Amino acid sequence: xxxxxxxxxxxxxxxxxxxxxxxxxxxxxxxxxxxxxxxxxxxxxxxxxxxxxxxxxxxxxxxxxxxxxxxxxxxxxxxxxxxxxxxxxxxxxxxxxxxxxxxxxxxxxxxxxxxxxxxxxxxxxxxxxxxxxxxxxxxxxxxxxxxxxxxxxxxxxxxxxxxxxxxxxxxxxxxxxxxxxxxxxxxxxx
Length: 190
Prior knowledge:
The chain has helices at residues 9-12, 21-29, 48-62, 89-104, 132-149, 174-185, and strands spanning 2-7, 37-42, 66-70, 110-113, 122-123, 129-130, 152-154. The chain has 190 residues and is an alpha/beta fold. The longest helix is centred in the C-terminal third of the chain and has 18 residues, at 132-149.
């Protein structure tokens, strides 16, 4: 079985002192042999716009049996001084549908991981902001698209405690990633 995971810094595992993130923890549950491969294509700062530029090539390179998409929080981000999201909700919807259409050329086993919450009104050192109400709009869109396509959606909205499970107000700490891993592994078939 080959599993491909695509997403952003939370998919990558940023701020995890154990250097695993939820995807690394998932890999550690798989048998150690040539029959199981897991590729983590999480990139910090990634939006659906960015992922569309590379997804088809990377998926073709590994020919996954299972695809997990965990992306959208950066799409919802409000850049410094702007009231518009990095990627508007309509474009986000189109992008996510295109990603799923590409994924379906490789496998029917596709999972969408919902978006996590941030510490209230998180702001980066460059002034961009993440607001839970905006994140919720994008997460609802992920859920609706999953339902429309008949795909598994794994809700992350209430998995993390925003005061004790986040390392920097945005990225989970080791405890938070363990909670995400548990929510994911309880829902997917390996």
